[in-house]
């Protein structure tokens, strides 16, 4: 009888359990695919990572997860975007929404319409023409419709949830699907002398776990990819200077905003993530500019309610491993890199890592153990994602008029990656922003930050400047009126979550 293909997942945080749940749902026959996950209750998980991006919904849908049940089990709330306060300049605020500006019929040109009109006479801010922003600012929530004619189809949403509860939920699904979980500490990783492939993990208990394919989900420790296979780290901390965070949970005020908050501070920024019955908070800061105690004090002074937990300090370095799939091992999650949580991209990167891995999965058809062709393509796809996200994050720091602290002065004048310089130039010249079919971030996201942080375009797309002003004016007026009509009768976010999940909040 043929041996089953043995997949070993090292680590059981969000990355480990998302990976286990996804692989076990696609490869169901345990006599062919054996999946074992090792996690250590003693070590625990990073314990943060509660704001997501809209693609998480498709991940959950693929697993057949019932949304209301998942939200009930994880203290879930809806997220329509991120509100950035004091970014760009102190006192300013804007929302980076999920979804597009204008209606779906005119969304690709809408920003240009608005810019052209604004150059002729004063207009309301572009955010007035985003259904997602208008819902968010009024604390309302409604599901997007599928009908592209309807303005309500222009918004999209993600979730805030308790990361530990989400991992526990996925663990339940995975174990039901036959994933074997071992609680133990990995003490050594063995590899084959000739091929370099990993062969087994040795646990502190003395148990040896042999495998054919290994997935490193061990978090910042990167036990397999970095410590064993010596993957090279590409350090981006010269652009993304924050290297520490202090996190704690607090009471959540009565109203639950349907968006994450990011408040820029002297040495970094503070997050506020509203869950059903508590809030997640943290200060991400640059340790050269402020001490841990100062960061904690600053966080504590701006909590939305009473602190419920002790502060937790986390160190990190922005960057990623150049090749997150090497030999018979792929790293998913923090073990493959981390770019700081400003745009909630880590869980997204886990999801994309899983999707790419499954597309290129090394099915043992011929007993072939050379995976280099598969891994090259995987690494190319993941590289693209990381680099685009990196540029987008740097943009937030770079585009600022703040003079109040070293961090902001430094970031404004620093030399950014050439790829970002080009994006800024294209936008400034013509309001042009690169669009692509897959991956982050698409045009409306770039527009939100360019506009929200005060970068204006000098020229307008000539196809738009040739249009009669009356036409542009009537388009904007129509969108604005459709948005107002769409919001009539919408529930508050709090009411919506309570009703949808069938709970009292
Ligand atoms: C400050 C901060 C804020 C963040 N906010 C967000 C956010 O809002 N949105 C978002 O998408 N992402 C966010 N992230 C990232 C997010 O936390 C992670 O992407 C996510 O939690 C996945 O982590 P992980 O599973 O890779 O690692 P971890 O959660 O650290 O899990 C590692 C696992 O490996 C196990 N392990 C490690 N060593 C051993 C060993 N020797 N033996 C056995 N087991 C071992 C641990 O027990 C654990 O189970 C944030 C990260 C930080 C640092």
Quick take:
With 505 residues, the chain is of the alpha+beta class. The chain contains 16 helices and 23 strands.
- Record field, number of beta strands: 23
Report the major sheet: 7 strands, mixed
Kindly name the structural category.
alpha+beta
Q: In CATH terms, what is the fold-level topology of one domain?
A: FAD/NAD(P)-binding domain
CATH superfamily of one domain: FAD/NAD(P)-binding domain
The CATH class of one domain is Alpha Beta
Gyration radius, to the nearest Å? 23 Å
Structural notes for this entry:
- The structure is a single chain.
- With 505 residues, the protein is α+β, with helices and mostly antiparallel strands.
- The protein has a domain at 5-48 and 68-76 and 163-234 and 319-386: 3-Layer(bba) Sandwich (FAD/NAD(P)-binding domain).
- It is 36% helix and 20% strand.
- It is built from 16 helices and 23 strands.
- It has helices spanning 14-26, 55-62, 67-74, 107-120, 131-137, 163-176, 223-228, 292-300, 346-359, 372-398, 406-413, 418-430, 443-452, 462-465, 469-487, 493-501, and strands at residues 5-10, 33-39, 77-79, 81-85, 93-97, 140-141, 158-160, 180-183, 186-191, 198-203, 208-210, 213-216, 233-235, 244-250, 260-265, 268-274, 279-285, 312-315, 319-321, 325-326, 329-331, 337-338, 491-492.
- The relative contact order is 0.17.
- Flavin-adenine dinucleotide (FAD) is lined by residues 11-16, 38-40, 43-46, 48-52, 163, 185-186, 217-219, 221, 223, 245, 247, 282, 284, 314, 316, 333-335, 341, 344, 346-347, 350.
- InterPro entries: FAD/NAD-bd_sf, Flavin-dep_Halogenase_NPB, Flavin_halogenase, Trp_halogen.
- It comes from Cellvibrio fontiphilus.
